[in-house]
Design a protein that fits this description.
Layout (H helix, E strand, L loop, with lengths): L2 H9 L14 H8 L7 H13 L3 H20 L6 E5 L9 H8 L4 E6 L2 H10 L7 E6 L5 H6 L1 H6 L7 E5 L11 H10 L6 E7 L6 H12 L12 H5 L6 E2 L5 E2 L15 H4 L1 E7 L2
Parallel strand pairs: 1-2, 1-4, 2-3, 4-5
Antiparallel strand pairs: 5-8, 6-8, 7-8
Helix pairs in contact: 2-3, 4-5
């Protein structure tokens, strides 16, 4: 489904009644950086403006996607996780969570969560589970963990008495400090049993020039438009893993996390400017 087809569906009164194509959305902007076609002019303008300040942002988006693949492969393989809750799914691309996990264990069950109708329309149309496993797609926001956890489709798909892989990739940086992202993550993890895992990635200002970092922090403090990125330091990102046991190599650049099998040359941590980590709930 292209953005043009989705616009036509919106105009004819079908799915998408909440879409404002004049306002950039993080999922569609990310799709643009990955070279996708499921985005609108506002998303492209926003993406280009951010790329003007951070020219390697497309590299960062690609490396984050590769980190997702490696993290899910580890969780489904070495860790034996058979259930995933992926919040902030984004528009389907290559190597989606269920595809990677079910390539290891076909019986894996995955719940995707996003708050953009375009994401949900694409997910329901394009993401199909293996016969042995299952997928579900929830229209919900990370900032409303109670709605996610109580959703009947989640309860039908996942057994929350058994370990779950909680995927929060490139989504926590859209939650400002004032909305307490740490409490949100704690609430989600509290609902999951011991043996569950958190896999997360987060954009950082640690490698940016001081002037650009200050500008980004000021924009985040001011709220800004929907989808403003709240850059955080490594220490601030590590806080999301408090009380968990980090998987080696711990918190590091997504470009370096178990990336031995990735093609060379690898991008620098400066170009990527995104941390990632995976940790187990004891």
């Amino acid at each position: 489904m292209t953005s043009e087809n989705f616009e036509a569906a919106t105009e004819s009164g079908h799915a998408g009644h909440r879409i404002d194509t004049s306002v950039a959305h993080p999922a569609r902007r990310y799709n643009y950086w990955l070279g996708g076609k499921d985005n609108f002019q506002a998303d492209r303008d926003s993406g280009d403006a951010m790329a003007a300040r951070f020219p390697t942002i497309r590299i960062s988006a690609l490396e984050n996607r590769r980190f997702l693949r490696r993290a899910v492969h580890h969780l489904a393989g070495e860790a034996g996780i058979r259930q995933f809750l992926d919040i902030g799914t984004g528009i389907p691309s290559a190597d989606n969570t269920h595809e990677v996990a079910q390539s290891v264990a076909p019986s894996t069950r995955v719940v995707y969560v996003d708050n953009d109708p375009i994401v949900l329309a694409h997910a329901r149309a394009l993401l199909t589970s293996s016969a042995e496993g299952a997928t579900a797609y929830l229209d919900a926001d990370l900032r409303d963990p109670e709605r996610i956890l109580a959703h009947p489709d989640l309860r039908r798909t996942l057994d929350l008495s058994r370990p779950v892989g909680l995927m929060l990739l490139a989504v926590l940086h859209f939650v400002p400090d004032g909305e307490d992202p740490y409490a949100i993550v704690t609430r989600l993890l509290d609902a999951l049993p011991a043996g569950s895992y958190l896999a997360a990635s987060h954009a950082t200002h640690d490698y940016l020039p001081a002037s650009v970092a200050a500008e980004a922090k000021a924009a985040a403090r001011g709220g800004g438009p929907h989808g403003v990125i709240n850059l955080r330091s490594q220490a601030e990102f590590v806080r999301f893993f408090d009380g968990l046991d980090l998987v080696e190599p711990g918190v590091c650049s997504v470009a370096e996390w178990r990336a031995e099998g990735e093609p060379e040359p690898r991008p620098s941590v400066v170009d990527v400017s995104m941390y990632g980590g995976v940790a187990r709930k004891p």
